[in-house]
Amino acid sequence: MKKIQTLIFLLIALISENSKAQSFVFSCAKDTVIPVCTSPCITVKALIPDIHASTSDYTVNSMTSNGGCFNPYVDPSTPGTSTSLTIDDRYSSFIDLPFSFPFYDDAASPYNGLVVSTNGYLSFDPTKAGTSSHYGILSTGTGLSALSGTPQDLPNTRYDRSLVMGPYHDIDPAYNTSPNQLIKYDIIGNAPHRKFVLSYYQIPLFDCQNLINNTHQIVLYEGTGIIEVFIFDMDQCTVWNDARSLIGLQNYNKDKGIMPPGRAASDPVWGTAGMNESWRFVPSAGLSTLDSVVLTDLNGNIVSVGSTVSLGDGNLDVSFPNVCPNGRTTYIVKSKYMIPGSNPVEYVYGTDTMTVFIPAPMTITSASVTDVACPQGNTGSINIAVTGAPGNNYSYSLNGGTPQPTGTFNNLIAGTYHVHVVDVAGLTCPVDTTFQVTELASNFTVDAGQPVTIMSGEQIHLNGAAINASSLLWTASPSDPSLTATTIANPSVSPMVTTTYTLTATNSSGCVVSDEVQVTVIPRCINIRNAFSPNGDGINDNWKVYDNRDCLEKVIVSVFNRNGNKVFESQDYQNDWKGTYKNKPLPDATYYAVIEFYLTSGKRMTAKSDVTILR
């Protein structure tokens, strides 16, 4: 079974005028490079409109963002059917549509005609024919006027009924500052795929008559209820209506409306010359009208049948499995939609193309590694260079980290590293390779020894060791005057307080490693008396071998006479011997004692001492 690689593409519009006339397009014609790097076959993913049977609600999406492009059907500067609008703020006479057009859930929908306003919008309300059209966008004012206050968004009772605004702003064809201005419409295509295209070309702004870069279109699609708005140019008159404008739809009852993001009246002032942006309003209520979607070659042969998932935003995500391009290959995405209410059933088609070719992979032209010189160091580096991407526009990442524009990675510790190189434009297959950064001095070590516990005043030797060191240095914290031999492995010390000793080793390459050990000092509690007087006077009657038991777990005592006979023994001595043997006083004499001290630290100490009985 072939492995299928999944890629996502923006669909591309057919460029023949006949195709435009007989269908609608999704975006624009252009080549798409697909870096098929692991498999000869792919799953092509596309976006198509999710058209529904009812216009009681709409979704709106940009047609020019995220890789889309600007592809109007009619040049707004070419002659068409004139609306004869030459007076400011005026509706045209009633214009018959060659097809009925549904709009929201208006009682009179579908409509067979409309009226055009000089201010960039149309209305399906026939009672407005030849009357004054609204021009005020702000909240303060009466009647048609609203020239100060808060910008008013849709839906709104201040505006007229059944409106398509594309965009709504106060433009005035009565000025003679734009000699080529036009407000006209065209009917293109054949039934049931006709389009009504209303064009405004270089109409001056009211109160700013020299600002004539105001060119836009509204497109109504037969059979689908789709509405599109194309904005070529738009000026801003800052002294009128606060330069506000809006794009959107409003129903007859003025209780439903929709505006594209960023294009509401209350949004920051927008509009420039050369905008070249477009928006598509798609019916979103009722059942989907999609019948099928297929991917074909240029001869119409089906390459793959698509499956769809609704994205909930007016678009369908389409997957075409097992598409196997052969070199540079052009495909057509053809979507078939049922026309609601047609009997017998008729269909309208959406068509786009994509040209696919498989690029050559990138190649590694050089790669180098600098190893880490010292243990636990971070002086390693990797340097890689590649070629093959158009424009030499690469992105490099190390172990899945943040991408960077160069192939040099510094300050690395020893380890295994994965470098991923991609062509930023996505036109070339990526490169993946692995590098090993080694620690050169991995056999250079130092060990300061194991922790030690001693009693105050006791002397010990530190047990340091190092491998492949050229020099050693001991330091103490806090400072210890007893540490006098600082450059040998096993100096003697007699700290008075708990002290941390650090052994630093240097090798012939100048690398430095260190280790530390703690010597814990406990207060001296052992104090063996070598005489006592057990005469019952209450003074020095017991033989004492310690001052307190704070540092002791257990004390074992054995006492012998000069003949070597044991005269006293205790497994847990409590400083309580009164010089007796079998409950009888021993003669005054000198005896020999062995004492084993078990410290609270776990250390065992043995002491030997003479002890004299003097009564």
β-strand percent reads over 45%
Quick one: biggest sheet?
Answer: 7 strands, mixed
Structural class: mainly beta
List the domain count as a whole number.
5
Indicate the percent of residues in helices.
under 10%
Number of helices, counting only DSSP H or I runs of 4 residues or more: 1
* Span between termini: 107 Å
| Rg (C-alpha, Å) | 47 Å
The dominant shape is elongated
Mean residue pLDDT: 89
Runs with pLDDT <50, length 5+?
Answer: 1-21, 142-146
Question: How many distinct beta strands?
Answer: 47
Account of the protein in words:
The protein has 615 residues and is mostly beta strands. It folds into five domains: 4-51 and 289-357, Immunoglobulin-like, CATH 2.60.40; 56-286, no CATH class; 363-437, Immunoglobulin-like, CATH 2.60.40; 445-522, Immunoglobulin-like (Sandwich), CATH 2.60.40.10; 531-613, Immunoglobulin-like. The protein contains one helix and 47 strands. The strands form twelve sheets. Strands 2, 3, 4, 21, 22, 25 and 26 form a seven-stranded mixed beta sheet that branches. A seven-stranded antiparallel beta sheet has the order 6-20-17-16-15-14-7, with no helix packed on it. A hairpin with a 4-residue loop joins strand 23 (307-310) and strand 24. The longest helix is centred in the N-terminal third of the chain and has 6 residues, at 17-22. It starts with a strand and ends with a strand. Residues 1-21 and 142-146 have low confidence and may be disordered.
